[in-house]
Every structure is written in C-alpha cells, then in structure tokens.
Write a structure and sequence with these properties.
The complex is a heterodimer of chains A (188) and B (144). With 188 residues, chain A is α/β, with parallel strands linked by helices. Chain A is 36% helix and 18% strand. Chain A is built from five helices and seven strands; from the N terminus they run H-E-E-E-H-E-H-E-H-E-E-H. In chain A, the strands form two sheets. Chain A has a five-stranded mixed beta sheet with strand order 5-4-3-6-7, covered by helices on one side. A two-stranded antiparallel ribbon of chain A has the order 1-2. In chain A, a hairpin with a 5-residue loop joins strand 6 and strand 7. Chain A starts with a helix and ends in a 14-residue tail after the last helix. At the A-B interface, helix 4 of A face helix 3 and helix 4 of B.
C-alpha cells in the first residue's frame, strides 16, 4: 500500500468533509441583521387613530422602541401584554411606537379593542416602506434606538416576558445623556 | 457585400426595436433585471421578481420607486444590502472571501484535468520494447 497517497487522500477527504459538515451547521434561510449599530432609518408615519404624523426626527435624544406588529400575527397577541407593561413601567423615560405591518385599519382596531390599547401610538406604514427600511422579514420585530439615534438592539419574534426588553432599556438609560451640541447621525 | 447588407439590416432592426418599444416596457425590464438579483427574505431561494410573497411585491415597489427617482441599479442593490446584508444578493459580489465561490470551481476543474492528463499519460506509457504498461505490472499504479 502506498502510505503517502493514502495520507494525502485522507487529508483531502477530511478537508472536504469538514467543509460540508460546517455548511450543514449554517441555516441558509437565516437573514442577517445588519441594522444594530447603524443609524436608525428615519420615518414619518401617520397615527392609526388620530392621523397625526409622527417623525422619528422629533424623537431625537430619546430612547425609542419601535415594534412592528399585525392583528393576524399570533405571537403579537402573545407579546401584547408584555409591551403594555414595559411601556407603563418606563412611562415618559422611553418612547414607544407600534408600526402596523400589512394589516387593515379595521382589523387593527378590532385587535386593540379585544386586547386593549398599547398605551402608545400605532402608526400605519403604506407600502411597507418603513418595514423594508428596517430590513423586516416578519412580525413581531422590535428595534430599540438609543439617544444617539443608533439601533442598539433588535429582536425577531415576540418578547416572552419583560426581562429581555427591560435589560436593554435599563442599560441604555444608564448611559449619561449628552448635553447640547451633540451631532446625531440621522437615518439615510 | 451580402455580409455588410445583413449587418445593416440587423442594426436597423435593433434601432427600430429600441425606438418603437415603449419607454415603460424598457423601464419594466430594468426593474425586472434588478429585482431578479435580489433574494426574497421570506422564500426558499427565490428572487423578489419570481416570488408571489407580499413582502417581495413591496420590495419590487421599492426597486421601481428608486429607479424611477434616478437611482442606479447598483445604488438600489446597495440600499437592500444595507438593510438585509450581502445575503440579499443572489449572486455574491466577487470580492474578499466571496472570490472563493468564483475561483474554487475553476481551480478544481483545472486540477482535475491535470490529474486526468497525468494518469492517462502514465496508464498509456509505452515501454522501450514497445509494450504498453498495464496497471497490474506497475507497482506505482496499484493505489492500495
């Protein structure tokens, strides 16, 4: 037997097998999340109830939680009480906005009548432009924007309890607020 | 002479096609071309052009609006890469680590061709006496 050839063959086979095994550990359907660490895309959306326009620009220097939801989304139903509680807990220290995703006004209102209001505005997103701006792939999806206008955290799927979100908010609130004359990086 | 005439006819036909095709059709073709290069985030290996998903339809709308607003196809793709990462491109950019995708098949093909050539030469080697060496006679050719 030619040991030299056998060794080379074994090394090549091991290398190819390792490469294939590594490939199997990756999920080809997993969409990357490049937004955390980047300036939050700005938006200018109308309130579902009042029609009043809410601009992200107007919420500068505040910690903002943006939650994309829909009435047809089961996990959003599950997450609803968690968001209501956290929004109540932080009051004026954190601004919450919901963004309705691919849903009708009637269905959204029926959802809110059944489960109760969030306690913060829900905005409409015609053509899902803001959802695409945020790289959305489904609902619920939540983005937490720091006072510097940078996306500090994002979550795909529902919050099962308050812990994860409050940990992020407490961390951001602990960062001392900069005094005037800070340059904020706006959205694209 | 005939060749020149045929070339002239082809050129005239192409010019007529470009001039007579409505601008909307040409624009739609540009939208389709860009949309075909972007992966649908909620599908299995489909482009946003081919996917019937609502998100894909909305993304096609963004492609259309951006092109209409004067963005180049590269700028449109860059917008989506910023939101969804390089993953969104069905054809990875030939830079950095992505280059392996383009280079490796060519290297493997070339290596295979060289290997086959070397083995073929060895297998068909003729001895000074004029007899071809068969695999069983040559201990080097016995792999195991």
């Amino acid at each position: 037997m030619n040991w030299k050839r056998a060794l080379i063959g074994a090394i090549v086979a091991a290398a190819i097998t390792s490469l294939l095994a590594f490939g199997l550990t990756l999920d080809p359907n997993r969409v990357p999340e490049p937004l955390p660490g980047m300036a939050a895309p700005t938006f200018e959306l109308a309130d579902l109830e009042t029609g009043e326009v809410v601009r992200l620009e107007d919420l500068r220097d505040e910690i903002v939680v943006v939650n994309f939801w829909a009435s047809w989304c089961g996990p959003c139903r599950f997450e609803h009480p968690v968001l209501v509680s956290v929004a109540q807990r932080y009051g004026q220290r954190v601004r919450f906005v919901g963004v309705l995703h691919r849903d009708s006004r009637q269905n959204a209102n029926a959802f809110l009548r059944e489960l109760g209001e969030f306690g913060y505005p829900t905005l409409t997103d015609p053509g899902q432009r803001t959802a695409i701006d945020y790289g959305l792939t489904g609902v619920p999806e939540t983005f937490v924007i720091g006072r510097d206008g940078v996306v500090a955290f994002m979550k795909e799927g529902p919050f099962v309890d308050q812990r994860e979100l409050t940990a992020v908010l407490d961390r951001l609130l602990a960062i001392p607020q900069e005094t005037p004359d800070r340059g904020q990086s706006g959205g694209p | 002479m005939r060749l020149a005439l045929a070339g002239l006819l082809v050129a005239l036909a192409a010019a007529a096609w470009i001039l007579l095709t409505p601008k909307e059709m040409l624009f739609d073709a540009r939208v389709r071309e860009v949309a075909s290069q972007l992966r649908c985030p909620v599908c299995q290996g489909e482009s946003i052009q081919d996917s019937p998903a609502e998100l894909a339809r909305d993304m096609r709308g963004v492609v259309r609006d951006m092109l209409m607003a004067g963005s180049t196809p590269e700028e449109v793709k860059a917008y989506f890469v910023e939101r969804y990462g390089e993953w969104i491109l069905l054809q990875p950019r030939p830079t950095g680590f992505n280059l392996t995708v383009y280079i490796l098949p060519a290297v493997a093909l070339l290596g295979g061709a060289i290997l086959v050539l070397l083995l073929a030469r060895k297998w068909t080697r003729v001895t000074p006496a004029g007899h071809a060496v068969i695999a069983g006679d040559d201990p080097d050719l016995d792999p195991w």
